[in-house]
């Protein structure tokens, strides 16, 4: 069974529009913004097994389910998981061609064979830490109904294999501090994806880690879309808070990633360093390359700079929001050394800072237009279509000096009718493919708005 076939059978197949297409953008508060059950698995065409915590059966039916995922899973089979508490799991079954192992949350709408099913089986399936170390696995929480909890000073979920899809999970670092604000429980990192190709992370909530939300390393053809990343506590060795390495929290820490896409994500409440941080170590062969970043909401009034782009090439940065609180030359986007072939179009950005990292604007390598800047630091060379406006006119997010919003939802980044970003974008640029839909999957006008959300 090919990956695409198994994905369709597992009820939420790949959508070329990604998180910015028909499935919509990121939801929050544990609920998916897209359809929970895009299709129903036909267990007459694929072998289905059934898992319910505490049971002691052979997994052949809901009347005799496995009590947990068995040590060995069958390639090409589907495993329905009911609500309950489960131990951690290592997905390490050897590949067999392109046959996929699918693990999906059982719901009232889709639970396979009805014999022995009870609607009370639907709910949250809570796992300890998960590792995926062999190719062709799909794990689908259907409405973030599979929760993965991180161990103390560890990682909640690790993916290190090709052709893996992780969809609609609650990936919880479960950070907790003691009475003296020292790290007492929970993971250093919520999600680690490394050394792999063709991995999809979609519609997940990734949160409450001592350090990073998602560490993304040495990857090709990553799709990271429709996720919510938040509540990163900047607790580590540098501040004396705990034993996690340095504790410089990043929503996404990205290094040696190429041919990849970041779309429709909401990242906020990052105590330090940034919502997105490109790696600034290694050799030029390890720099990030060929990455599309579009229709994202990056909001971090707690930090000095919200997004760091440096040591990378061929970066397409379209229709994003990069916003915080102005602190002199800080509060927005940092562009650093050795960044080549950048195209930056139709974004709302508080400010662009080159001086922080000792870089300078290069008109041959740093191209862009039709961006709205809250503040012009005279470090990015503005173009004819750019707009300078202290207040971009969000419906619920303040301008450059307003009181920060602690727990933002995507709708707060929609534009007022009087916003200077309305109808000031561009629908096409020679040689570039701009997104035709917005954060929520709604079509953009022929004269689009600047930012992630079309009015």
Description of the structure:
- A hairpin with a 5-residue loop joins strand 13 (176-177) and strand 14 (183-185).
- The longest helix has 7 residues, at 3-9.
- The chain has a 21-stranded parallel β-sheet that branches.
- It is globular.
- The model is unreliable at 1-25 and 28-37 (pLDDT under 50).
- It has a single domain (3-413), classed as 3 Solenoid (Pectate Lyase C-like), CATH 2.160.20.
- With 455 residues, it is mainly β.
- It has one helix at 3-9; strands at residues 48-51, 78-81, 84-86, 89-91, 101-105, 125-127, 130-132, 137-140, 146-149, 155-159, 164-167, 169-172, 176-177, 183-185, 189-197, 199-202, 205-209, 214-220, 223-225, 228-232, 250-263, 266-267, 274-278, 288-294, 297-299, 307-309, 312-318, 321-323, 333-335, 339-345, 348-349, 352-353, 366-369, 372-373, 387-388.
- The two termini are 42 Å apart.
């Amino acid at each position: 069974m090919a990956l695409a076939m198994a994905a369709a059978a597992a009820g939420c197949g790949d959508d070329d529009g990604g998180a910015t297409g028909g499935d919509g953008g990121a939801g929050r508060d544990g609920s998916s913004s897209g359809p929970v059950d895009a299709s129903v698995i036909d267990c007459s065409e694929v072998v289905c097994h059934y898992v319910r915590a505490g049971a002691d059966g052979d997994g052949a039916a809901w009347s005799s389910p496995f009590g947990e995922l068995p040590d060995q899973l069958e390639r090409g089979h589907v495993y329905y998981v009911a609500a309950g508490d489960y131990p951690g799991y290592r997905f390490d079954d050897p590949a067999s061609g392109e046959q996929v192992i699918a693990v999906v949350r059982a719901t009232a709408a889709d639970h396979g064979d009805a014999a022995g099913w009870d609607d009370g089986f639907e709910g949250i399936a809570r796992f300890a830490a998960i590792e995926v170390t062999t190719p062709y696995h799909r794990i689908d929480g259907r409405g973030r109904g599979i929760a993965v909890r991180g161990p103390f000073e560890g990682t909640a979920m690790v993916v290190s294999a090709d052709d893996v899809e992780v969809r609609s999970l609650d990936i919880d670092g479960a950070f907790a501090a003691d009475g003296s604000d020292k790290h007492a429980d929970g993971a250093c990192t919520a999600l680690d994806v490394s050394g792999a190709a063709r991995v999809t992370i979609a519609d997940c909530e990734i949160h409450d880690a001592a350090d990073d939300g998602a560490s993304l390393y040495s990857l090709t053809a990553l799709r990271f879309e429709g996720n919510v990343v938040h509540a990163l506590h900047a607790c580590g060795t540098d501040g004396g808070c705990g034993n996690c390495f340095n504790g410089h929290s990043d929503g996404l820490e990205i290094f040696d990633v190429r041919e990849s896409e970041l779309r429709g994500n909401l990242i906020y409440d990052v105590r330090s360093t940034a919502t997105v941080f490109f790696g600034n170590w290694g050799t030029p062969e390890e720099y990030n390359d060929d990455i599309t970043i579009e229709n994202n909401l990056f909001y971090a009034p707690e930090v000095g700079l919200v997004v760091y782009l440096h040591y990378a090439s061929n970066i397409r940065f379209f229709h994003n929001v990069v916003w915080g609180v102005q602190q002199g030359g800080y509060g927005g986007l940092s562009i650093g050394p050795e960044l080549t072939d950048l195209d930056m179009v139709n974004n709302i950005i508080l400010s662009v800072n080159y001086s922080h990292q000792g870089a300078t604007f290069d008109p041959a390598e740093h191209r862009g237009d039709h961006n709205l800047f809250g503040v012009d630091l005279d470090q990015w060379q503005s173009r004819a279509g750019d707009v300078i406006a202290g207040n971009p006119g969000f419906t619920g997010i303040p301008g450059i000096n307003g009181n920060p919003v602690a727990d933002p939802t995507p709708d707060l980044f929609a534009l007022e009718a009087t916003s200077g970003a309305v109808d000031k974008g561009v629908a096409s640029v020679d040689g570039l493919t701009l997104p035709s839909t917005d954060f929520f999957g709604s079509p953009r006008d022929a004269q689009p708005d600047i930012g992630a959300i079309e009015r």
